[in-house]
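ERR on first pass: missing label on line 2. Operator R.T. fixed the label and resubmitted. Corrected input:
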Amino acid sequence: MREKILTFIEKNSRIDLKELAIVLGVDEATVMNELEQMEEERIICGYHTLIDWDKVGIEKVTALIEVRVTPQRGMGFDKVAERIYNYPEVNSVYLISGGFDFMVTIEGKTLREVSQFVSDKLSPLDSILSTKTNFILKKYKDHGTVIAEQPKDERIQMIP
Amino acid sequence: MRDPLNKTIVNIQPSGIRKFFDIVGEMEGAISLGVGEPDFDTPWHIRDEGIYSLEKGRTHYTSNAGLKELKIEIDKFLTRRYGISYDPNTEIMVTVGGSEAIDIAMRAMLDPGDEVLIPQPSYVSYVPCAVLANGTPVIIELQEKNEFRLTAEELEAAITPKTKLLVLPFPNNPTGAVMEKADLEKIAEVVIKHDLYVLSDEIYSELTYLENHVSIASLPGMWERTIVINGFSKSHAMTGWRLGYACGPAVILKQMLKIHQYAIMCAPTTSQYAAVEALRNGDDDVKAMREEYDGRRRYLLHRFKEMGLSCFEPFGAFYMFPCIKEFGMTSDEFATRLLNSQKLAVVPGTAFGDCGEGFLRISYAYSLENLKKAMDRLEAFITELRNA
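pass 2 clean. output:
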């Protein structure tokens, strides 16, 4: 049941509980209890909205920052990550395999703001060896959703 | 000048939904629940395989019966899903959609005067195909009280010494009815007793919501008297690829293949390569789509119940077949008025046979969001009628 609920709301978290219950073929109380429990267990960590800010005319700059660090004695990666993710400017922090250690995404109003954050806050941290900032020029697809296009029903409208 | 036309074809009526099609196309803001094909696009990995085959220059004919590797995959699929097995060399042929398979099976099996039993409501092509194959269609009118399943009594009552072939269209378009194993066993008994053949159109076989689909060919004594028709259109959302297949005893397939060879040559090559991928790695896609349809089905049933619209619970395909007899209108009138007053298009049950009178076909091959809007319109229309 949990998997079914999650699969559904991962795509559409705005569906009302009654409808979700009907679609899944269970009663509303079950869905409500499961959701509450999963929120408590932090299986569901939040309900967010995917926004194309460009369309609103509000400028936002997002950067993917590759970060190389030296984990310090008794600290490990987790501590370093915590130092990084505590900044509200930081959107996400992933520990990754490959040529560097963390992938950090940062959102700011301007290029300058983001660069300043990197040079003033991020780079000076003790354990950070180097950073490489990649600015996002255009978002095509995010969270499994193609940003630009509105899918259109091109089927012939009456087919036996 | 002489009449250029063949009298048989002139006498065949064009499909009854044309009129609605013309209106819906012109109407601003109309919602249509009249589409008989999946709303999903073909899963990407399948499309990708089609593209890859083009890149590789696989742009030639295949053998008449289809790619060997596809026929092997078809056999594996039918074996793992329905427990029926066919020799890929002589008992399987790949066709241009299930539609072609229906046509050539009838042409290969019927002599003038042979009667073909066609349960209705059902898909629109069986009767014309039977007529074009010089057969005589005999309609069996299915009953709502039986959830539009075919019963042994109805079958028995329609059989004459001329009866040769029974068309078995389940899971059914337009009713959504299914035939379960116990239902089929009773039919099989009558079929064997009267030495009939069965054309089992199982194009919706992957879309059942109660139990796994049962093919009548899997029952004892039935394999040798059944042509199974299936395809990729509904299961893998591949309608535009035009790819289906027919399976059955070699003695029949051999003749069907002759018609196919001379009329068609072979099914589209690109589609065949894509279909190999669909059968090898597509089971999860089918499952995901089935679950999605099932949720919509439950949603519509719930809405019908809420608005007091009578409808039996259908367990197959992606159609609901609610009854509108209480409103004292014909299906055609109801559908026309619904379209004009609420801009909602549905198909009158009569498009699928006279016994569809008093019913509507409502397709749920639409997003939940769309279905919601559509149900609000239907409810408003019904409320208006009841208060009038």
